[in-house]
């Protein structure tokens, strides 16, 4: 199997600007909710005259974004298959730019929520498209690292959203303060839109459209090396992709949504992908992230300090995601995620205990331990779950249903985000720290189910992964063909020997 070259790595990390877009746009709401000018402008201050309205609208900023994300995840598979990976990413980038501009120019909370919803649709589509594209242009030996860059850049987006909020806190112009913070959402998708014509199309998608020559040419660029003058490695991968593509085309169940729900092994993959994303969010990661400023305020931390801690938190998360990408291909996906889920649960248990005991008090030691457990939580999550979950969901589906499979899988992320973050303000108000019990208990059940049902995929090509789910692959076709040819050779030899023996016997009788 070929290895990715410098051009391959460049394209993988460039398209991860879309990953950054998802991360920044998701987390920026946590930053602007920490800016007093934003809360006062839209009347979202919970200490104001109408705290219930403020709380419900605050929840809506996250809920509508997540709802848009669900729609985006379910719509984008059709675009990816009909238009190709590259053109779809270009259209998504345009949507993200326009929706961010609507938020920046908002003069009423309704206008802001509309922009937030459309932006959710855009980043939902982006969160599906980028790992699909990365997985289809990455070699098996380094696919974990390459597709892991999606999760890494997502959290880099979280981190820069935090630092943007912290920096904008010191701007004295109360309108510019929050508008500038939101305007940063435009930069990454605009750069991706401008540079996207230089991206090659996915060779696997090209093969499904019978554009095989173009697919082989792109594979040579992506996985060629100076010492491989005849492109033998790219040729081997190309032959494997073509064989598998033909096999998928001639499957009786077909391709697309019909195949997803009619073939047992496809349904199993769909359930596993959806489960991995749901259990990943059931660690409570986005509840902790999006309401982190409120959590710090509950620990007695005020002014710019919560924004500083929020920025440092996400910067550390980005570093741990980078670590995750380095160990994915060595340790495997499942083992890393199991460690992460248990670690997240234990860390959040410690944080919940600190909140229960010291929230609203001036005990600096107790509050300090509360911050420590939050950082320990993101150490486990960033180092094990973020990148790993995207890599796993992008690689367990065959090319014929990859867009639909990843779309449904990532919709699980947005569904759980919608449920958990929408309920967050009300839950924190009514039951306080007990809300964390949900995210302490569920990961243990998730770990047991993952250990039992999720196969390991590290080191296998996308075509070879089919064997893990009992599907016939091009490897079996080649083996069957070789065995058949060998069998025919043996029959021919027996026939020859039999004919020769009969001739000798006849001669002796004479």
TrEMBL record:
UniProt KW keywords: Membrane, Transmembrane, Transmembrane helix, Transport
Gene Ontology MF terms in the entry? carbohydrate:proton symporter activity
Record domain Major facilitator superfamily (MFS) profile: where:
11-458
Compartments where located:
Membrane
Q: What is its main location?
A: membrane
Pfam families attached to this UniProt entry: Sugar_tr
Question: How is this protein positioned relative to the membrane?
Answer: Multi-pass membrane protein
Any single GO CC term annotated in Swiss-Prot or TrEMBL for this entry: membrane
Q: Which PANTHER family match?
A: MONOSACCHARIDE TRANSPORTER (HXT8), PUTATIVE (AFU_ORTHOLOGUE AFUA_2G08120)-RELATED (PTHR48022:SF11), PLASTIDIC GLUCOSE TRANSPORTER 4 (PTHR48022)
Protein name, per record: Major facilitator superfamily (MFS) profile domain-containing protein
Record the organism.
Penicillium egyptiacum
Tell me the classification of the organism that encodes this protein. Eukaryota, Fungi, Dikarya, Ascomycota, Pezizomycotina
């Amino acid at each position: 199997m070929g290895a990715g070259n410098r051009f391959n790595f460049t394209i993988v990390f460039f398209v991860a600007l879309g990953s950054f877009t998802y991360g920044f746009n998701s987390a920026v709401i946590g930053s602007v909710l920490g800016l007093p000018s934003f809360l006062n402008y839209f009347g979202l201050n919970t200490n104001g005259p109408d705290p219930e309205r403020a709380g419900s609208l605050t929840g809506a900023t996250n809920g509508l974004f997540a709802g848009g994300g669900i729609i985006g995840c379910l719509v984008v598979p059709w675009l990816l298959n009909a238009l190709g990976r590259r053109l779809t990413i270009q259209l998504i980038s345009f949507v993200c730019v326009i929706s961010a501009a609507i938020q920046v120019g908002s003069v009423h909370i309704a206008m802001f929520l509309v922009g937030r919803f459309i932006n959710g649709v855009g980043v939902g589509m982006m969160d599906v498209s980028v790992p699909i594209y990365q997985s289809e242009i990455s070699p098996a030996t380094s696919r974990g690292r390459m597709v892991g860059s999606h999760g890494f850049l997502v959290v880099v987006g979280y981190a820069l959203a935090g630092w943007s909020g912290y920096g904008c806190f010191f701007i004295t112009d109360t309108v510019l303060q929050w508008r500038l913070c939101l305007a940063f959402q435009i930069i990454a998708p605009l750069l991706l839109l401008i540079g996207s014509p230089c991206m090659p199309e996915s060779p696997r998608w090209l093969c499904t459209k019978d554009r095989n020559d173009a697919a082989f040419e792109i594979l040579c660029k992506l996985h060629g090396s100076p010492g491989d003058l005849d492109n033998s490695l790219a040729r081997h991968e190309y032959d494997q992709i073509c064989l598998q593509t033909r096999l998928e085309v001639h499957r009786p169940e077909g391709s697309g949504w019909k195949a997803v729900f009619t073939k047992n092994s496809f349904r199993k993959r769909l359930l596993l992908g959806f489960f991995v994303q749901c259990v990943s969010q059931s660690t409570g990661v986005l509840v902790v992230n999006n309401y982190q400023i409120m959590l710090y305020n509950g620990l007695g931390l005020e002014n710019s300090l919560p924004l500083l801690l929020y920025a440092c938190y996400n910067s550390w998360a980005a570093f741990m995601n980078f670590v995750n990408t380095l160990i994915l291909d060595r340790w495997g996906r499942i083992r890393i995620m199991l460690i992460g889920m248990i670690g997240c649960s234990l860390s959040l248990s410690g944080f919940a205990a600190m909140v229960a005991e010291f929230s609203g008090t001036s005990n600096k030691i107790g509050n300090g331990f509360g911050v420590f457990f939050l950082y320990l939580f993101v150490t486990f999550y960033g180092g094990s779950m973020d990148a790993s979950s995207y890599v796993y969901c992008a690689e367990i589906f065959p090319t014929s249903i990859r867009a639909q499979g990843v779309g449904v899988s990532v919709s699980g992320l947005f569904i759980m985000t919608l449920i958990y973050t929408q309920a967050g303000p009300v839950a924190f108000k009514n039951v306080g720290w007990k809300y964390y019990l949900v995210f302490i208990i569920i990961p243990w059940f998730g770990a047991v189910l993952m250990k039992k049902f999720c196969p390991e995929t590290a080191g296998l090509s996308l075509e070879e992964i089919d064997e893990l789910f009992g599907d016939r692959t091009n490897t079996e076709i080649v083996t069957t063909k070789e065995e058949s040819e060998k069998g025919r050779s043996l029959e021919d030899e027996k026939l020859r020997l039999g004919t020769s023996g009969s001739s000798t016997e006849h001669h002796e009788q004479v």
